[in-house]
Amino acid sequence: MNTDTLSPELLHKIDAYWRAANYLSVGQIYLYDNPLLKEKLQLSHVKPLVVGHWGTTPGQNFIYVHLNRVIKKYDLDMIYIAGPGHGGPAIVGNVYLEGTWSEVYPNVTQDEAGLKKLFKQFSFPGGISSHVAPTTPGSIHEGGELGYSLSHAFGAAFDNPDLIVACVIGDGEAETGPLATAWQSNKLLNPISDGAVLPILHLNGFKISNPTVLARIEPEELEQFLRGCGWTPYFVEGDEPEKMHQLMAATLEEAIEDIRQIQRNARNGGDAIRPRWPMVVLRSPKGWTGPKEVDGLQVEGTFRAHQVPLLVDPEHPHHVQQLETWMKSYKAEELFDQHGRLMPELAELAPTGDRRMGANPHTNGGILLRDLRMPDFRAHAVSMPSPGAVDAQDTLVLGKFLRDVVALNQDQHNFRIFGPDETLSNLLGAVFEVTNRQWDAREVKNDEFLAPAGRVLDSMLSEHQCEGWLEGYLLTGRHGLFNSYEAFIRIVDSMFSQHAKWLKVTSELPWRRKIASLNYLLASHVWQQDHNGFTHQDPGFIDHVINKKADIVRVYLPPDANCLLSVFDHCLRSRHYVNVVVAGKHALPQWLTMDAAAVHCTEGIGIWQWASNDQNSEPDVVMACCGDTPTLEILAAVSILREHLPDLKIRVINVVDLMKLQSASEHPHGLSETDYDSLFTKDKHIIFGFHGYSSVVHRLTYRRTNRNLHVRGYQEEGTITTAFDMRVQNDLDRFHLVQDVIDRLPQLGTKGAYLKQLVQDKLIEHKHYIDSHGQDMPEIRNWKWGTPT
Predict the structure, then answer these.
(1) I want to staple 614 with a disulfide (CB 3.0 to 4.6 A). Which of 142, 267, 489, 619 is the partner?
(2) What is the pLDDT of residues 694-720, one digit of tens each?
């Protein structure tokens, strides 16, 4: 490898640029005033509360300046993902040096006054966070939570053939489960139609107070590990700046040439063999160029450099001089002119225009976002002669619609389906009529739907990767959906939270463009787990989602296939939301024609007049339902009540948009108090069958006037049993619901008592039948709306 890649002049400039970035980083962590140290540093110039992270920062500054060089030399379309937690000073400083920060935030000018604002805002009330956040131009990755950088990088690279995603991975971050799995994503990257990911594993040896695993294993073992994951690692190791600059420059050139050769072979020569993509391992001291020693303890190269390496406060006044010495070691007078502007000969090292990593359009994906070409969802309507007359598998119907979405957007390269090996299980297999699973590893006889290119990414059994890929895909201006078993979407609870926070913050930044919504399809849900049992029963993702900002989250529980089609058409067209759609894959009765479904889903909630008999009077009871299975059981209960108690006035309400239950003052979709009372009445008993935990409905409606709300939902009961018995064990079955109504309406008297006894007998008959036959009673399996029970 050529270790004299840089001329003496260029070496001097690159080192100076690196020193400038380091100077800005220290200034951000510490300084409140006196940004160029034109006067002797005083304690009053230091922030009252100094917080931040220094350890990873100089290494990231080193990487950034060298990436700038190869961007200019090769005219690269490259973005930077900062994986190490709290490396904000590095990226903010570099985005400022290249000019992007001042373009986005004109009040932070490129002069001494601007430097003061840049320094003050960091980790300061009303300012910016200590990690790379949505406020940072050039960022698509929230650096506060570790583990997702490489997943986001691959998501950004899919369908972006000219893009190189430089992904800096902290060695602490590399210990997380999601990141440890993300190394395998190279088996799904197509060198013809996708871009490239250049991982840069930054080994600085320590976490907050512990060593890192990858930095402490033998070098041979580390290389074997990375090669075993399918990478070609290049090592840049040392602490002497001049040698490290030369080595890094030569290494990056070799990595870029490798990437270009791989892509040429694939795109021009049809080379279908899975490549071993290059990556870089940078081993440098933690807190490089910072204080060597503080109060007799080594700092640089130890865990003590992780956060603030030098306490400067009234309890440590003697550290003021040491801070000044540290900052002056970067020789700011050689880097900035008297007005505080970066010297022109250094400024010209940065790329210009959209080639700047802070200004690359891929990092503000809404700029590149194009509408999907959408088929007419009505073409897939389930035809029904009357409510409940036919059964259908809702997600099987949706799969044909998604097939058409894929087909219409094949040449757009802007729509993908993600899921952890569940596309077929969730009955979306129709998509494989027009596309394949993307897979670049070895194939064997009897594999299905595998190809180097495809619109489906479900070949890795990792919810973390699917979520991360989709987030990266969306953040760079494309569309997609994530389908998962309902119980196991909980694996990405925290990832969802981070993305929701990203959407919340970016919605308040005028320069950030809106991106396509993050769409979840949760199937194989809690109510139909005949052979999987208790382990596969958890509807709690809904609870988690509704805690987030109302402007961001939407939750839909369509009762049948036609409603599911209407809801998903809406979700795929939407922007800047998280849409959670829960739907079943087993055959259930269908309730609404397509025209009626479109109206019902647009309203989100409504009275089903065909199921109600209170049109000319006040209802005696309101029977409400949300979710496909609760809808079935509520309607079955209504049919029993209407048959045996024909004088009972019942109003049936179905909820598709869960957030309609919340007050309009709390959620944009919420009903006004007047509209809610009009539907649910102010004082009648409401028996509510809900898909998830009953507490969700109580939380959403706690401000409503009508307190006579009785919710039946999942109660953490269930094992290997029949579909109907699952409902029985959780008191959501038709017989328990009938008993619930009778218990709430004492005026039913003797007729109510006899009916209550009848349904209790049915519950016992049901238990005996399933114990003997292993399936539900014929009257349950064959029940239809409108037929006697």
Answers:
(1) 619
(2) 999 999 999 999 999 999 999 999 888
